[in-house]
Amino acid sequence: MSVTPSSAPGGPSDEEIRALDTHWRAANYLAAGQIYLMANPLLREPLRPEHIKPRLLGHWGTSPGLNLVHTHLNRVISARDLDAVCVWGPGHGGPAVLANSWLDGSYTDTYPDVTRDEAGMARLFRRFSFPGGVPSHVAPETPGSIHEGGELGYALSHAYGAAFDNPGLLVACVIGDGEAETGPLAASWHGNKFLDPVHDGAVLPILHLNGYKIANPTVLARLPEGELDALLRGYGHDPLYVGGNDPLTVHHAMAGAMDTALDRITAIQQEARADGGTRRPHWPLIVLRTPKGWTGPAEVDGLPVEGTWRAHQVPLDQVRDNPSHLRQLEDWLRSYRPEELFDDHGRPAARVLDRVPEGTRRLGANPHANGGLLLRDLPMPPLERYAVPVDKPGATLHEPTRVLGDLLARVMADTAERRDFRLVGPDETASNRLQAVYTATGKAWQADTLPVDEHLAHDGRVMEILSEHTCQGWLEGYLLTGRHGLFSCYEAFVHIVDSMVNQHIKWLRTTRALPWRAPIASLNYLLTSHVWRQDHNGFSHQDPGFVDHVLNKSPEAVRVYFPPDANTLLATADHVLRSRDYVNVVVAGKQPCFDWLTLDQARAHCARGAGIWEWAGTDDSSREPDVVLACAGDVPTQEVLAAADLLRRHLPDLRVRVVNVVDLARLMPAEEHPHGMPDAEFDALFTHDRPVIFAYHGYPWLIHRLAYRRAVHPQLHVRGYKESGTTTTPFDMVVRNDVDRYRLVMDVIDRVPGLAVRAAAVRQEMADRRTRHHDWIREHGTDLPEVTDWTWQG
Amino acid sequence: MSVTPSSAPGGPSDEEIRALDTHWRAANYLAAGQIYLMANPLLREPLRPEHIKPRLLGHWGTSPGLNLVHTHLNRVISARDLDAVCVWGPGHGGPAVLANSWLDGSYTDTYPDVTRDEAGMARLFRRFSFPGGVPSHVAPETPGSIHEGGELGYALSHAYGAAFDNPGLLVACVIGDGEAETGPLAASWHGNKFLDPVHDGAVLPILHLNGYKIANPTVLARLPEGELDALLRGYGHDPLYVGGNDPLTVHHAMAGAMDTALDRITAIQQEARADGGTRRPHWPLIVLRTPKGWTGPAEVDGLPVEGTWRAHQVPLDQVRDNPSHLRQLEDWLRSYRPEELFDDHGRPAARVLDRVPEGTRRLGANPHANGGLLLRDLPMPPLERYAVPVDKPGATLHEPTRVLGDLLARVMADTAERRDFRLVGPDETASNRLQAVYTATGKAWQADTLPVDEHLAHDGRVMEILSEHTCQGWLEGYLLTGRHGLFSCYEAFVHIVDSMVNQHIKWLRTTRALPWRAPIASLNYLLTSHVWRQDHNGFSHQDPGFVDHVLNKSPEAVRVYFPPDANTLLATADHVLRSRDYVNVVVAGKQPCFDWLTLDQARAHCARGAGIWEWAGTDDSSREPDVVLACAGDVPTQEVLAAADLLRRHLPDLRVRVVNVVDLARLMPAEEHPHGMPDAEFDALFTHDRPVIFAYHGYPWLIHRLAYRRAVHPQLHVRGYKESGTTTTPFDMVVRNDVDRYRLVMDVIDRVPGLAVRAAAVRQEMADRRTRHHDWIREHGTDLPEVTDWTWQG
What domain range is A207 assigned to? Predict the structure, then answer.
């Protein structure tokens, strides 16, 4: 393994290097201790089986490398008084980050029972990966963390998200060579084309090549040096190399590389801030090549462990039962010379803490890593300014997302100085008709521009890259460090981040139980270009299942909204942008959509989450209706209103109630979701026993799964998207999926007792209209005029 | 825009170049015609509004570039008699690929009504993106395609999948600069570290930099040339550059680059096949830099279009209503000189077809792109050889996936010559305990090796890279070209490919309606290291929701299995590996699991999909039971059996029926899924009206959503994972989620009428045991001995 000493002049003295090594040994000792020991933490007596945990869990392999990085970050933070956080990509190396947090005192500040002495060390060890204790990974419970590191791929996009609009912040980011193989990580290297050296902070990637994953060598570690260098320069970085297996040599090289990197960052920022940042800089990056499981057992039972994949988790197993392993563990732990590292009370020796920063400069205590502490309310303008006038329902049309765009433009303008609001999306902001925001800010772009380009700006706060993963990662990093944002995405392709939103919801759910974690702004999705209006793209772009996915997760952290028109979208957006600690999914169309509610009505409707639209129905409050027509989603709402219109004209004495649902969780039982309706309230809307024809935006069985406990459920008949799609007209899409007005009228006739005979002619008329539709579109390629010209005549 | 002429000697004559240009013009004409025309296809008369489609849909921007690549692939295929397919990453440019398929006659071979003459041309134009017609993208309906191109990111991994084990095949792969920004694409560049030049075919990536996405410049197109070159060399390629906007110059350069690339590929393969392939080659790659919407309108309404993002979809809109646009369209179409391209009957002129290959050499007719034509049944060994002996249920333990590993090793060995079976996984094959396969083959690896490495081999057919996206893409490409495979994955992280599996299921669903598409092998998932046994990793690794996601999709293409022990896993694996055109999800544990069924019993149970385990219950067939204990999944099955055991001992006269479900879709109504049970059969298993306590592996509401129409549904009480996880013991996981044996017994007591009083003491005992559990694990960190020592005593 090659050693590339830093070429930086000066550098730390041998004395300082020895102090750093002392800190590193202490961290390594504490990391190994967490994996193995439940007693005798300072090895005051010979190690015995009962000192060993009964279940050995944790990841040793990456821990010494993380400890090395932490030790050296401590040094430069102290020396330069840096405001810094670190994203630990190999976050499954929880023992390392916990060890460092305990050493710098931030762990004890956060969890006072885990004192910085022998008793606390024993507690630190025991609770690691122990039932009722703390997770084995860097997790929300870990001070100083904004990144879990269990599901790999998001370290670098989180780091960029943290750095945006934090010009004084350094975000170090350790990227493991395993994680580097993932798609999301591979895409996120290009984040440097979006980082503005004037208004943003710096990201310092540290690519840690320890050579192996769980069971295999890694791709990047086995590239020839020239190929790796070309790759990193191709990513736009100016790499520095550190490597070896002799600790003191590596400390020297690492200290030099850190100094060089930080000097370059300072120079880049100073130059850009002097001249306005006209060129995209080539930011430094450190490649750290050290053995996996470094300083751990070199061999176990005759097989090499240190420097191989065998060091990934627990290098010595069966320690309670295997005396030779027990002895080997004791030798290993004693190799760190704990007697030099901790005083008689088990407190870290002064030499260990020599370069450890203090107060909020500690990586375990920087407020950026507990972003809610820094969060300010967004300045939300009065919605009245943006609301569309509605003299009567269904008489005018607006594009809801375009109306929202005007509101977002105002928020962008009002945060121009604060710079704490960003809009992200995979090249779809304009396609999703939010382009009004460009009146207030540009699209972030540091690369070259051409005269034909529009709206690109070094300091833009709209973020567009054709990677949903990168958009999501950036936004998570931005929110977790105490800012606000919105992700606008084609509905079908938000599934690309299914697994990322899982992890974010898990994070939110966990932090809700941690009083020291201040609430952060919600992660807000605007899903548009939705299943019903993919005229250009067809079947591949039709999938409304993200809502199903999200509703599987912790209900306390999840909200789903289907505003049916422009004003309800405004009211919904206003709500979600003010909220905290949720994932809010807002599904709304970008195509012209009837305006149903005034702003005041919209606000009241959103506050209730679901309600009767009296003006649309023909029932009165004195009696139960004959049938309930329910809807959620803009297109189903239109079809339900059109069906109600047909029923009013063809069956004027039928008592029809129209119910619209904005907040989908309202359908759930009150004990299953904080927004769930009590049964009495639900029954008051949907009745106990009348037929309910529910036209839903997505997969129909979701409504059944939410409402199966309700009294009316045997009478609930749901229409929705059933995976019948292609490139076709908007109305053909609803016909194909049986959500069209004619089918809904037929459903009513089929389900209201006694109507089948009385309304047979009406039913036939509806069936005929569906046939006419089929004939018409095949000839004309457009929808029936009676459909395209329809307006509400209530 | 720079032009880099090929440096290859020789190259095509000017005459040949002009013939290529004629073909390209024809393809461009046909592409534009599809977007715009519904009549007058040959422009025999001046263009009038009624010739124009009423809805203008399609993507022009990428089409000229795709046409250029197709034209030049035709040339080299003809000249070198190549066996070649092409993956069109920018597959939304459907008009281009359809145009070429019509030109080479493969479209008419596939759809005889679309003749290669004027009438057929009119039909080709009209049906494009027209209701009842064909999708706007390259799609399953497109001859020669294995790739949709609607959701971007998977072109290159599909191409590698197609090339593996096809040593005679060239797989060209066009990568758009938009798609190149996605994570999955960014990761898939490293496929060349896994491509064996001896046993695999060649992949020729063609990176098409047309500069813009929907609304933005692309990252790669704006890299300085040196940075782009470094990046591509860092990816391990030896790039060739072609660019410009003068067609004849670009044709010359492209022909030269194609020749150079293919010469290099031949040299690489010949050398490797002579010496056994000891070095990883640097494969060629072509960078093609041409304007977006090339040859289309330069300006529209005073704004530049050609060469900008405005050319992305339909460059001229409102053509029916805007006479100036209509005239501009006519000028544009006539600029291709259709009178030179087609004869009086509308047939392509001879000069157009000069370099078009014939028969199965045509890209639209290569059987590799209709892989089912080449598919052979897998040689499946007799399961008896691998089955575990079961003298009595629940007396022995095996690790199911390890048992499966022996079977897979045999399949690997028996396909050593045929090379048509691969196992993919993100670095988890051994972690998932399938390592027996290494006795039969190695892990594919072309990079350097070290002495400490194990099981790496140039020609290995186990594929491990830490990218679920790449694993999925490789396997899809491999299956779509007529081979077999299995994807083993941690259960939680298979969500990473949610969106990819969506697209694959959509593909399968569409091909099922296309008689000319031969069935392909199913895509088989083995989900293991599942939610209940993430002792090392905790909450981030706990998510059983992939099943929910998949069950939202087309039921004809989706199957889900929960084999409860080793022998049922064998029987399930045997079934899924023989099946066609499905996505099969098999969820099974890797941890020691009780053996419940003999192989014969397992086969019978799997054939039924769900059944009563008479030996486990206390009811008899003469009467309805008092309660049904149902289970799906290995851990819930164990808890249900343990609960049945407790009930037998504590409440011996209670008639308990135990039902196990292997095939989850059996719970669905027969009319909703091909495997769904008729009501009578369902009721015979679960009763009409007795309490059913169902312990399910995943989110409990899924069972409700599948079974809500059944008579017994009001009595159905489901326990499952409810997002309560952390790093803890296996039994604590079931306790936290209320799926443990004690809770199940309490559920029975709570729900069987009359039992609450009679069995109050038993209930208290169960509650006490849960308390004892909590106390015990917090003290000892391990599960109660009464749990870990439990065996079935039936």
Answer: 5-359
Distance CA B588, CA B584 (A): 13
Q: Examine residue B625 and state whether it is found in any structural domain, yes or no.
A: yes
| Selected residues 55-84 of chain A with any CB under 8 Å from a CB in chain B | 55, 57-59
Chain B positions touching A450 (Cβ under 8 A) are 217
Among the candidates A305, A325, A359, a domain finishes at A359
What distance in Å separates residue B586's CA from the closest CA in chain A?
A: 19
Angle CA(A605)–CA(A609)–CA(A611) in degrees, nearest 5? 60
Mean pLDDT of chain A: 96
Cβ-proximal residues to B155 (8 Å cutoff; 6+ apart), any chain:
B87, B88, B89, B91, B147, B149, B173, B174, B175, B179, B185
Q: Does B644 have pLDDT greater than 60? A: yes
**pLDDT tens, residue by residue, B22-34:** 999 999 999 999 9
Contact B231/A231, CB-based, under 8 Å? yes
Q: How far is CA B574 from the centre of its chain?
A: 20
Nearest CA in chain A to B220: A190
**Cβ contact A549–B469 (<8 Å):** no
Q: List the single best residue of A209, A495, A770 to mutate versus B (max B Cβ within 10 A).
A: A495
Q: Which of A54, A182, A428 sits opposite B780 (nearest CB)?
A: A54
> What does the alpha-carbon distance between residue A256 and residue A254 come to, in Å, rounded to a whole number?
5
Same domain flag for B620 and B557: no
- Bridge-partner residues for A693, per DSSP? A629, A717
Nearest CA in chain A to B510: A539
Q: Pick from A739, A690, A737: which is nearest to A713 by CA?
A: A690
Question: Could you give the CA distance from residue A294 to residue A247 in angstroms, rounded to a whole number?
Answer: 9
In angstroms, rounded to a whole number, what is the distance separating the alpha carbons of residues B739 and B732?
Answer: 10
How much is the pLDDT for B10? 65
Q: pLDDT tens, B107-129? A: 999 999 999 999 999 999 999 99
Tell me which of B535, B562, B593 is where a domain ends.
B593
Q: Which of A55, A304, A427 sits opposite B215 (nearest CB)?
A: A427
CATH of the domain at A711: 3.40.50.920
Is residue B478 one of the residues assigned to a domain? yes
Within the 557-616 window of chain A, which residues sit less than 8 Å (CB to CB) from chain B?
Answer: none
Handedness of CA B86, B148, A528, A379 (dihedral sign): negative
Q: What is the number of other CB atoms lying within 10 angstroms of the CB of residue B452?
A: 15
Q: Are A125 and A131 in contact (CB under 8 A)?
A: no
Contact list, A499 vs chain B (CB under 8 Å) = 492-493, 495-496, 498
Check whether A612 has a pLDDT greater than 80.
Answer: yes
Residues 6+ apart with CB under 8 A from B265: B170, B202, B204, B283, B284
CA distance B45 to chain A (A): 21
Cβ–Cβ gap A137/B540 under 8 Å: yes
Both structure tokens of A65: 């490398």
Which alpha helices (DSSP H) does A81-165 contain, by range? 94-104, 106-110, 118-127, 155-163
Is there a contact between B214 and A428 if contact means CB atoms under 8 Å apart? Answer: yes
Residues B41, B102: Cα–Cα separation, whole Å: 14
Q: What is the pTM of this model?
A: 0.97
Q: What is the predicted pLDDT for the residue at A631?
A: 98
**Residue-level pLDDT at B621:** 75
Separation of alpha carbons B207 and B457, rounded Å: 29
Tell me if B499 and A502 make a contact (CB, 8 A cut-off): no
CB contact under 8 A, B427 and A215: yes
Domain count for chain B = 3
Across B567-645, where does the E strand assignment appear? 583-587, 593-594, 610-612, 627-632
Summarize pLDDT for B727-778 with one digit per residue, the tens.
899 999 999 999 999 999 999 999 999 999 999 999 999 999 999 999 999 9
> Would B601 be classed as within a structural domain?
no
